TrEMBL record:
This is Class I SAM-dependent methyltransferase. GO terms for biological process: methylation. It comes from Halomarinibacterium sedimenti. The lineage of its organism: Bacteria, Pseudomonadati, Bacteroidota, Flavobacteriia, Flavobacteriales. It comes from the Bacteria. CDD domains: AdoMet_MTases (cd02440). One of its GO terms (molecular function) is methyltransferase activity. It holds the Pfam family Methyltransf_23. Keywords: Methyltransferase, Transferase.
Amino acid sequence: MKDILGKALLDYFHGNYTEDILTETNISDEDELPLPYLFRNYDEMPSLEQKALELCKGTVLDVGCGAGSHSLWLQNKGLQVTAIDTSKGALEVTRLRGVENVKQISLLDYSEAKFDTILLLMNGTGIFETIDQVPNYLHHLKSLLQPNGQILIDSSDLKYMYDTSEEGGIWVPADRYYGELEFTMKYKGELSNPFHWLYLDSARFEVYAKNNGFKFETIIEGEHFEYLARLTAYPL
């Protein structure tokens, strides 16, 4: 896999910022992902992310850490953080910014420790890829939780991206869940391989969570159908 994200983050960190990442999906046109946003500090984060960071406790696993902004803030607050990502370049940036414990690995391959908090932000459900993979990921996430641990994860309901019928419903694809997208990223003329990314509406997510042994709680909702959820495992 091409490390488009890592290349862009390294360029920005080393002062070679000349352009942003371009993203495109199977339901939307090309859009810019500004590199400075990936290096934002706490005051520049949306309230949903701020709330998630404030709720973190104990040992924390930051999944898909990117440039390490969340990990760095938590570490500076005295929490013990493990930051993981599949992007080699992103992890190099995270390490250079001062995060002490980083590891290049996918979530499903990680099993080294258990945590009090598992953090998945910037559409954390995206890592699930497709709707049929949700139980598999939830099962693995549960195996990484300490007793009384929590998962803090955000996502959005993409119903606003689709046409509305006269009755108030939405026209959605017949062959897939409407929150399943296929992304590509482009940076400095280089195009990534297509990858799946899941946006999961909160009602459906709650059903999956309960079916897999979790209590589901919506912590905060935004103005554009985004939300932060907390999952805690029911005792055996």
